[in-house]
Amino acid sequence: YALEDQGLEEQALEVLQRVFGYDAFRHPQQEIVNHVVAGNDALVLMPTGAGKSLCYQVPALVRAGTGVVVSPLIALMQDQVDALTELGVRAAFLNSTQDFARVREVEQAFLSGELDLLYVAPERLLTDRCLSLLDRGRIALFAIDEAHCVSQWGHDFRPEYLGLSTLHERWPDVPRIALTATATDATRVEIAQRLGLDNARAFVSSFDRPNIRYRIVEKNDPRRQLLEFLTTEHPGDAGIVYCLSRAKVEETAEFLSAQGIRALPYHAGLDQAIRAANQSTFLREDGVVMVATIAFGMGIDKPDVRFVAHLDLPKSVEGYYQETGRAGRDGMPAQAWMAYGLQDVMQQRRMIDESTGDDAYKRRLGAMLDAMLGLCETVECRRVRLLAYFGQKATACGNCDTCLEPPQTWDGTQAAQKILSAVYRLWKERGQRYGSGHVIDILRGKKTDRVTQYQHDELSVFGVGADLSEKDWRNVLRQLITQGLLAVDHESYGTLALTEDSRAVLKGERTLMLRRELAKPGKTRESSGS
Ligand code: ADP
User: Fold this and answer.
1) How far apart (Å, rounded) are the C-alpha atoms in residues 168 and 141?
2) So what's the pLDDT on residue 183?
3) How far apart are alpha carbons 327 and 306 in whole angstroms?
4) Strand pairing of 409-411 and 212-218?
């Protein structure tokens, strides 16, 4: 038995080298592969880019039969199958984009044992036709990709995933491997429960990248700030600068070039030949700075990227983590630097408002943005915050800006109480909701037309916040919003409302420390009473 296992392990390594052309497994791929090759169930949590695919692709090639991969990403199936075919792997997919003739071909190939890997969308897999097809062929394993989609509380819930528990009931002897890059502890438990992975071994990788130093600075003159960062901290280093728009990519690349930095642009609007040339220059030559949209980076494996800079706010923590993760793959010190300001918040909020999609979709985008803003505004260790997002605990790292130069904070409890009670009174006494501008006018005691028209000067909160400027109040507001102490209804002209958490602040049960560096409330006015 042991000898046989040994043989399988050797076969796995041989497949890795011969088929995929890699020298060695990355940690913890080897353990996972051996576990699945031997016929066991596994639950794999690994950050994006760590190499989840090989964890089921290699076992599928080593074990007899076809590896059946359940994936919700229909749009990516073609690419995945193309890439595998190029490596000489016999792969195919079944999904709704195919015509009947092609479906028959794929089914025939599966039944004749001519497929190493078969990708299927979950709703397809659960049809009678597909289940009976699988009954008639030989299955090497089931891989359930994006397994967090089974979680009803997660943001990616797919009802079809709930049906996948049937795999175990129908084929109890076929090993199953569930994989995901995003799962809190609660989600992990839910995945195991719903997929019936009672005996699965969990392989949980750390999401930490200790050699990356995280820094988020206040944006005031972004191009100059970037230039200073590059010339003082990374002269001659290779790195990536991410911008939101194509126009900004081109402007920034030109600006850096004019300053004597070897910078090249990359975005999906550039001619294919130019894109390919710039990418290969970046990969092959030393010290090139790639200025790019997020179109750049997928599948780029350059070990000595010394920095990743963001001139615009990413849409989610996942995106930020994925993009910054391209720095320092060689394990040597690297930096993730970002300039962030109020205009980023506004821009992203507007993009969400204007996006096409239903309410639930917009809410999801909003929640993802909020988590990203929380990371920007935090006065705690950035790494602790980042890892907490992925459900992992860490201690203050000593290698991020907030650890190295702890931001100054001030007690913003009273200021927060003033805003929250203004919002509360408007709602309670008048049944009205307003946006930030009007609420600030009330606090500052400004007799605008609207204030007079609605007699808001008669509210007890009128003028209680004359001690802070409008700009100061906006900064406080932004922090309350990013901390979830105030909700903004973007579909109703950005009106403000209290949240569950507001009450504790209003009642004085909670002290609120705010960041000074981003929200400069000026002098010591914050200590004055109400
Ligand atoms: P994930 O699905 O976890 O996001 P992928 O499976 O797409 O990650 O792998 C990310 C990249 O790492 C791919 O380009 C892949 O070819 C590469 N990779 C994975 N495992 C290895 C390895 N053992 N050696 C070298 N490269 C690897």
Assistant:
1) 11
2) 67
3) 6
4) unpaired
Phi, psi of 216 (to 5 degrees): -130, 115
Count CB neighbours of 499 within 10 A: 15
- How confident is the model at residue 73, as a pLDDT? 76
- The three-class DSSP label of residue 42 is strand
CA 208 to ligand 1 centroid distance, Å: 17
Strand 139-144 and strand 66-70: the pairing is: parallel
Instruction: Write down the pLDDT at residue 187.
Output: 77
Pairing of strands 486-489, 495-498: antiparallel
**Nearest atom (ligand 1) to Cα of 25:** 23
Closest ligand 1 atom to 50 CA: 3
Residue nearest to atom 2 of ligand 1 (CA): 52
| Top mutation candidate among 33, 54, 180, 205 for ligand 1, by most atoms within 8 Å of CB | 54
* Segments of the chain scoring below 70 in pLDDT: 1-6, 48-49, 75, 153-156, 183-184, 186, 298-299, 301, 490-493, 517-530
| pLDDT confidence of residue 4 | 56
Place of tokens 């199958």: 81
What are the angstrom distances between the C-alpha of 524 and each of 29, 366, 521? 55, 34, 8
Ligand 1: which residue has its CA nearest to atom 19? 51
Pocket test residue of 52, 53, 321 for ligand 1, highest count of atoms within 8 A of CB: 53
Beta bridge partners of 212: 334
**Residue found by looking up tokens 């991410």 in the block:** 242
Distance of CA 1 to the CA centre of its chain: 43
Q: What are phi and psi of 213, to 5 degrees?
A: -95, 120
The ipTM, to two decimals, is: 0.98
